[in-house]
C-alpha cells in the first residue's frame, strides 16, 4: 500500500512519473530519492537543480532537458541539486527492463540494470572544458558481462563529437586515474596512474573506490601548439581541496587530434551512483 502522505510530498513532475511511468514502482523511486545529509561537507551541492526525471532518448533533440541527454542507462533522476542513476532492479515487464532485455541483456542483467551502461551527455559546444563533479557510489552491480572489468569507472566526456570520437578522463574501479582518446571507435591510453591502493580482482575485489562516500573528480582539456593537454584532479575527502593527479597530452602520435569543440558529460559502468556539484566552464 502506497503511503499517500509521502506520495503527495513528491514534486509534481516526479509524482506524474510515479503515476504514469512503467519504469519504476513508487517504492523504487522513493528509495532512490532518499538523500543523505551532505550539508556538513564543503562540496557545492547543485548542478542538477530541476526536480525531474530525464528519460533516455535516441537523440538530444528528443530529451526532456535542454542541457542533458541520457544516451544510455534508462534515465536520470534529479532532485534537490543531486542526480542519480536508476537504483536497484527495474521491475520485470517495465519499460526499460523490457527494452534492455531485448537489445542488451548481457550488459544489463536481462534488463534489470540499465544503469550498468549509463551515459549522460552535457549538450552544448565546449572547446576547452573544465568539468567537475562529486560522486557517491551506493552499490556495485556485479554483472556476468565480460564488459565488467578494471577499465570501468566514472569518466568525463570531453570534446564529444559522437560515441566513437571523444576524450575520456576520470577514475577507474581498479583505483587508477586515466585519460583516453576514442578515435573512430578505437581506444588509446594517453595517461594512467594508480591512486587508490589495492589489487583489483573481478570476483574478489571488483571495485577499489570507496562506497557511500562523496569524492570529487575534475578534468580540464585545452589545446596548445597542436597538442591537447588533459589534466585530472581528485578531491578524495570532499573538502574542496583539489589534488592534481595526472597530466596527460595528445601529440598526435596515436591518431589524429580531436581539436573540434564538442559535447561534455559523464559515463559510469555497472554501479548505482549519485552526483552533485557538477559544473562546466570554458577555459580561457
Quickly give the structural class: mainly beta
> Could you state the CATH homologous superfamily?
Exo-inulinase, domain 1
Strand content: 35-45%
Largest beta sheet: what is the strand line-up? Answer: 1-3-4-15-6-11-12-13
Order of helices and strands: HHHEEEEHEEEEEEEEEEE
**How far from one another are the termini?**
55 Å
The CATH topology turns out to be Jelly Rolls
Biggest sheet overview: 8 strands, antiparallel
Total E-strand runs: 15
Chain-averaged pLDDT: 89
Flag low-confidence runs: 1-13, 15-37
Global geometry = globular
CATH class: Mainly Beta
- Named at the architecture level, the CATH assignment is Sandwich
Helix content range: 10-25%
Would you kindly provide a written description of the structure presented here, covering whatever features stand out?
By secondary structure, the protein is mainly beta. The protein has a single domain (4-282), classed as Exo-inulinase, domain 1 (Jelly Rolls, Sandwich), CATH 2.60.120.560. It has helices at residues 4-9, 12-20, 26-32, 95-103; strands spanning 52-55, 68-72, 75-79, 82-85, 117-126, 129-140, 153-162, 165-172, 176-183, 186-194, 215-224, 227-235, 243-250, 262-269, 271-282. The strands form two sheets. It has an eight-stranded antiparallel sheet with strand order 1-3-4-15-6-11-12-13, covered by helices on one side. Strands 2-5-14-7-8-9-10 form a seven-stranded antiparallel sheet, with no helix packed on it. The radius of gyration is 18 Å and the shape is globular. The termini are far apart. The relative contact order is 0.19.
Amino acid at each position: 500500500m502506497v503511503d499517500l502522505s509521502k506520495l503527495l510530498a513528491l514534486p509534481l513532475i516526479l509524482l506524474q512519473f510515479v503515476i504514469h511511468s512503467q519504469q519504476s514502482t513508487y517504492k523504487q523511486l522513493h528509495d532512490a530519492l532518499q538523500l543523505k545529509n551532505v550539508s556538513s561537507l564543503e562540496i557545492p551541492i547543485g548542478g542538477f537543480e530541476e526536480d525531474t526525471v530525464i528519460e533516455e532518448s535516441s537523440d538530444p533533440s528528443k530529451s526532456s532537458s535542454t542541457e542533458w541527454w541520457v544516451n544510455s542507462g534508462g534515465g536520470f533522476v534529479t532532485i534537490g541539486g543531486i542526480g542519480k542513476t536508476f537504483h536497484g532492479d527495474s521491475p520485470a515487464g517495465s519499460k526499460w527492463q523490457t527494452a534492455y532485455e531485448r537489445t542488451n541483456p548481457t550488459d544489463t542483467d536481462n534488463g534489470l540494470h540499465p544503469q550498468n551502461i549509463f551515459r549522460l551527455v552535457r549538450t552544448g559546444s565546449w572547446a576547452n572544458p573544465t568539468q567537475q563533479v562529486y560522486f557517491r557510489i551506493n552499490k556495485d552491480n556485479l554483472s556476468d558481462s565480460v564488459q565488467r572489468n578494471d577499465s570501468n569507472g566514472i569518466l568525463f566526456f570531453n570534446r564529444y563529437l559522437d560515441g566513437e570520437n571523444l576524450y575520456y578522463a576520470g577514475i577507474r574501479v581498479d583505483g587508477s586515474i586515466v585519460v583516453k582518446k576514442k578515435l573512430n571507435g578505437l581506444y588509446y591510453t594517453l595517461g594512467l596512474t594508480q591512486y587508490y591502493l589495492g589489487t583489483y580482482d573481478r570476483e574478489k575485489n571488483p571495485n577499489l573506490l570507496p562506497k557511500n562516500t562523496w569524492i570529487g573528480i575534475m578534468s580540464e582539456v585545452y589545446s596548445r601548439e597542436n597538442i591537447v593537454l588533459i589534466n585530472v584532479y581528485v578531491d578524495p575527502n570532499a573538502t574542496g581541496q583539489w589534488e592534481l593527479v595526472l597530466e596527460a597530452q595528445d601529440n598526435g602520435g596515436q591518431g589524429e587530434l580531436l581539436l573540434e569543440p564538442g559535447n561534455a558529460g559523464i559515463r559510469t559502468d555497472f554501479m548505482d551512483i549519485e552526483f552533485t556539484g557538477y559544473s562546466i566552464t570554458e577555459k580561457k
